[in-house]
Queue: 2 jobs
Job 1
Amino acid sequence: MHEAVQAGVLGVLTGGVYALMASGQTLIFGVMKVVNLAQGALVILAAFLSHSLFTAWGVDPFLSVLIIAPLMFALGTAVQWLLLRPLHQDDAALLSLLVTFAVALGIEGALTLAYHTDYRTTRPAYVDRSWRIVGYQVGEVRLAAFALSLITLGGLWLLLSRTRFGRSVRATVQNPVAARLLGVETARVAALGFGLGAATAAAAGAVYGMVYSFNPNSHYDLISRLLSVVILGGLGSLGGTVVAALVMGIASSLVGALVSPVWSDFSFFVVLLAVLLLRPQGLFGARLRGAL
Amino acid sequence: MSGPPLLEVRALTKRFGGVTAVDGCSFAVRRGTITGLIGPNGSGKTTVFNLVTGHLPADSGQLVFDGRPVTRPDPGRLYRRGLSRTFQQPRVFGELTVLENLVTAAGHGWRALAGRRLGARDAARGDGLLAEFGLSAHRDTPAAELSYGQRKLLEFAALLMSEPALVLLDEPTAGVSPAMVATIERHVRARHASGTTFLLVEHDMGLVMRLCDPVIVLDGGTVIAEGPPDDVRSLPRVLDAYLGG
Amino acid sequence: MRRWPGRYGRYGRYGPGLAALVALAVLVVFPLAVSAPWLVTIGLFTLMYAALASAWNLVGGYAGYPSLGHAAFFGMGAYAEAIWWTHRTAGSGYGPFWTLPPIGLAVAAVAVPVAWVAMRTRTDVFAIVTITFLFVVQTLAFNLRGLTGGAQGVAMPVAPFAPATFERPFYYAMLALLVLALAMSYGVLHSRLGLALTAVRGDEDKARSVGVPVGAAKLTAFALSVVVTAMAGGVWAYYLSFIYPQFAVDPLLSIGMVLMVFLGGRGTLWGPVLGAFVVAPAQQYLAYRFGASQLYLLAYAALFVVVMLVMPRGALPTLRDRIRRAEARA
């Protein structure tokens, strides 16, 4: 029983990080109606950058977010503006999806050239420290990561609900045509939205790099999980994404502790399968046109 | 025309969040009629179509088509049972030629997938419909190259490949030239004369008055009047529905 | 009125069947005419990619469902072949080729339920599900050690062919698969299945509402595509005689298939072949000279983006349009 709760606690903390990674994805889907297959690669890119900053200049990974986030924001905005915005054909959705996939590959290729294929982890001094809270072990890094996720998601929520930019984003998400008619520059919103999604990946990546060992190929594993989370939550629902991330974090952690770590990965696929079979719109998503 | 109605809609209800688009709607379409379905904007007409054909799941209510209850309406199954519909914005297969569009709608099941792409019988029936609708000249043109009005005609013609008993037309004359309106009217009458029943959603009151009998009036998702066009048009509650309040 | 060239519209046959026969003759004679085995190897892999691309085209091109995880079926075919033969002798050497058709059918049978679940969704979610499936199969390959040997891989008997002409039987096996894939594509195109798939690709909802058997059409295309893909995996396994999970179930293979089809022209009969004949030899040559796979990741990524932005319908349809426009002006 103790094990199960311990796994559950770990799961909540992990879920927080998934929520951060997946929120960027949901945001991008909201403004562009395109699933960003490069989200995992962006997280891994950030993990590598954070790792390099740490090993070369001793920059604490949490602080490195302040450096990496603006860089990735710029990268994301540029990618959307240069590569995705020009796609206007009838099957632009499909082409955009494949272009994001190509971006993921490009990032993987560049990372492999720069860093080769060895696995690495960012290990600052406190990485193995843990606290005992009410009899359960809570890793310091994971706790800090969870806190970072909360702060970032909170900041994102404030941005979306309180600022003019946030309103433009929400308008574009709900009804791009109406938004444009009301003067919202949806093209710019889409680009900035993508940039924002990439920036959240920066925070997630710095954290991911401390908790897991990664190499350029890790983005496939990551994107599969992120996609399961996003589909479970319902494409386009930020709240749904957060809930789904927590659910998946707990579920995979429980499976890992009670069954075997190998099958923990599988729980994502099983959940994805179940969602598609039973409730394709996910927990909170709306039924979009066409199946799902 | 006597006998049981071809289509019976009983207490159909559909809610979207807080809005009840269709509210306990009940009506019947008798065989061999061109029944009109009118009502002000937002009265739920297209939603009713979507519920009847299964494009949207209803929250409650029953459907009976051709004497048999429809338990879970599915567009494909209903099509093969003889109920077809057009869409407000004509939907055709742009990459296929006009003839191919017709053949695709022939309603063959999965067992026929191995057959020839344009079988002789299908092609012959298709050519027949093309001649009837005056589209023979465009036989091998990709549907994407047709004008809006021609696409509406094509969509209508294609449905007839399956020899439906009931055709639901969703604003067939919206956005087309007066000449095309006349053409469409002509074809509806001709098909009606050969026994096809129609249920027509329309805003063109002149057309409705000329063509439809009976006329069903919808407002706020429910039926408020039903009867011959001349009777219905002067009912105070119908005028109220259209003029506001 | 404008008449489309060919009786079956834009996706009909390119050039007379005669040109195809000539090409086939050239391909048949090729390994007998060249002396360097590495050239035959390049030819072998090019034919393999051409067969894979044509097979992928049935699902990604005709039906419009871009499967990004097809390499999983290639891997399943490879493992099936290797596991079957691992403790047997190859005898005359042709036995392993005869087990290919049953393997193709078996993997296709497994693929049908997977496809059924995956195709209940929009095309972008479908792409996601297939990537996830690829990852799952690769994980299974690594972890079901009792069956697949895990990271150690599986060995199969080395083919007893003469070293000087070792590649030839494999080359011809791949050529046979390419012919099979093209025959399937041609058959599908000229059948009601092809018509149904084009309708599904264009407007799946509308197709359903006019009684097109959408589910059966999609599943059939998927199954046919997997048969060829799995058989190619089997030939590949026999050629290498030792397979490892990260190479048998390799996302780069999926990516290659997609790229080749998009480059050549998806939904066309010859587009995938063209794409393969352009990309595969280049890829093989680069592998031979530089041996570095990260280079082709970058090259694939760059080529992908260029194709999407500049020539999204692929080379053949774009060329066709240019020719027609030139003719119209003349």
Job 2
Amino acid sequence: MSEELFDVRLTVNGLPHEARLPARRLLSDALRHDLGLTGTHVGCEHGVCGACTVLVDGRPVRSCLMFAVSAVDAEITTVEGLIEADGTAAGRLGPVQQAFAECHGLQCGFCTPGFLTTITAGLRDNPDPTEDEAREMIAGNLCRCTGYTNIVKSVLRAAEIAGERS
Amino acid sequence: MFGEPVQRVEDQRFLRGRGRYVDDVLVGQQVLHAAVLRSPHAHARIVDIDVSDVLDVDGVRLVWTHEDLGGGTAPAMAEPLPLLIPHPQLTHGRTQYALAKDEVNYVGEAIALVVADDRYLAEDAVGRIKVSYEFLPPVVGLDAARAAEHLVHDDVPGNVAARLEQANGDAGAAIASAPHTLSLDLEVERSASTPLEGRGTVARWDVDTGRLTVWTSTQTSTGVRAAVAAKLGLDLGQVEVVTPDVGGGFGVKINHPWPEEVLVPYAARTLGLPVKFVEDRREHFISSAHERAQQHHVEVGYDDEGRVLGLDVQFWHDNGAYTPYGIVLPIITSTQLLGPYKPGAYRVVFESLYTNTVMCTPYRGAGRPQGCYVMERTMDAIAAALGKDRTDVRAANFIQPDEFPYDHGLIFQDGRELEYDSGDYPASLVKLKELIGWEEFPAFREEMAREGRRVGIGLACYVEGTGVGPYEGAHVHIETSGKVKVATGLTTQGQGHATSFAQIVADALGVPFESVEVVTGDTRRMPYAVGTFASRAAVMSGSAIHLAALRAREKVLKIAADALEANEEDLEIVDGVVSVRGTDASIDLGTVAVLSNPLRYAFDEASKAATQFTVGDPGKPPVAEDEEPGLEGKDFYSPERSTFANGMHAVIVETDPDTAEITILKYAVVHDCGNLINPMIVEGQIQGGVAQGVGGALYERMAYDESGQLVNASFMDFLMPYVTEVPRALDIDHLQTPSPLNPLGIKGAGEAGVIPSAAVFASAISDAEGFAITSMPISPSDLFHLRLQHASVAVDEEPA
């Protein structure tokens, strides 16, 4: 008894990837284990914590609630794709990443990728949020370390950095 | 660098998606995946396990039940897991087997292990194992455990694992002769650490060298290493444990070895291929560990000022189905209950009881939140009975700044005297009252009342034993590049050690912060260590790193003095360069490192300077008799006893008169953990602790039904706070009373934020409602029902 496999072509952070996967393979597992993009983390596998959030065609999606085979026609962005080219090999931190570094917006770092992708999408829709709107923006993600105070600060600071850079 | 809010160096990796957590290890390489069959029953005898359907499943490599363990060189695999912290009063300690033998004692207990080509297949296979059970009556909750109509373990009478009594003075006599007395019954329910990353272990057996490498998401790499070696019948030198990035611990990852932590290495060795186990969220809820559940009965005698003359506390601690972590939790509760106060006499007695539920091991705060809650409820009750301000009653009971060191006459969790090192509680209280607006609150309450709104204010004080022994060590190595590599054995799960420890080294050694790299939790780099728990990392490893860096510095000065033909006393090290004060003569640390290691063979330009024809006095041995090659320093820090940090929290809450919803209007923290290495990190720890405390006080509980099923074992039903639940207005102020016990004057901060939460919310909600809250956590529904009860009591009491 073996599972039927499908040839899946995923576009992640602008690059095409190919994999042969069973239909039930979660997008989160495919990104992490088949494509080796381990920046996306899995915290609950039932769509509540938000750690696995990636952008699918620019919109935040829980990658643990989506099958990889359903993502074939989409543009996927993971935390690795938030780095901005600056001529160096490593690239520079994107505005949201930079803000987290400045505001101590992370401790263990496990939930962080989901916050970074969520906030990136949030600031695209609302580039200049109030504090209330910043809180609303992150209200679907769980963090057990920070108590959120510095994540809210990071959202506001990210908006400033994005403004400075544009 | 000490005391500066330096940005964290580890964040670059984390923010770029380059953290390396346990499930990231060996990605892209061949690795097999394990899944575990867990008991669906809280209490049952295993009659038969049928695995015949499983081996047919394509991709399945191995299926084990208890029968399969214990062969070859690993007989210990068939024995129960270790009882980590034995205690003479733990007369009936019990631990589980790696895979259940004959009986299961909680829903979630491991019964069988499957290893397959991927996790999906392994879970398919687990679903095909058939187990027949003979059901036994489950013991769920402390009431059932105390009643002991049924037993969890046949050979443990009354379900009592341990009974311990401690006393200082004659509390009974003091209470009997006191002008006033009170008795209280108080309760706290279960909660759990619940890190965003669960447990996980990866193991690789290297058949060529006969060595095992284990990556595990733990708070103690050396503990796991010793346990794995013992269980697998390997020499310690054959096992290395590497702690990767850990996605939060909060206490639960200090327990070890988990069944999977020995099964996965054993399977990897058996199969000759790497094996990985990463639990899912439900598994974390039902098969890791919880904490907190206790019931207390308090008798207290006090004078007209509210001074406690005698305090007698009897309590019952739910340790779950097993006691791998001994009775550390109730010991901490029983001693840390005293907080910043000095009762005239104190007696405490507890029983640690078995139930057919997940075992209880430390969760951030580790027994302290319950103790704080009991003491602070008692203080509030005294204030209410005397009609006094709650802060005045506390002030009347404080240990005074000139009374340190203060010996409580009890034995603490580390087997040492409970002796406080330093603190200034009256000063903290002044700060707290100012920060929360204690004096202004009555006017605010009236103003709110006029709008039909109900508010209350509460406070809670605690003292936290931090930095417990036995020891930690550090190794500091200055490479020929001038880079400084630092290793300490305890582990990191978000505390920013790579930053705060580098700050310590930069200061002690006189090197740029950027040139220091810190590694934690890797037994290859520092095999002697204890672990990260009890807010001990900064105190223990921070001190050890400071001492090791000073040793390296001594060596630097010795060699540099030789090279520069100067006296050591005339040298200074600034920015990684040693120079003779007031002259141009200097040598950089990299060159000193080259000179420290006399070479026969050159491998680059720098090393040419250290070969045998270029350095050394031909009349002396190249390495002096009392020296070693290499520019290194190693040292250990082992304190006589714990440091005692302290703090006070206050909160203003609003309770909805109709829905009983509880809203936080303002939260204030005054915190004293001695000198701060990095105030930004300390503040982050407190903010996170407060949020976790809010969860524990108002939202989180483990909902077991009467058959022992955990009915809320998911993030949908176990309500951890989102940003919407944590206080918007959180004010933090610090007092810095240095500890005299260590060279940096520091105390721990990790657990502080969470300790007084249940106490402070109970205080504030009681204040808002006008009746005493005696059971925590409290939900709007609980509060609503309490209102109905108190209303009906009030009606009953009205004269006819």
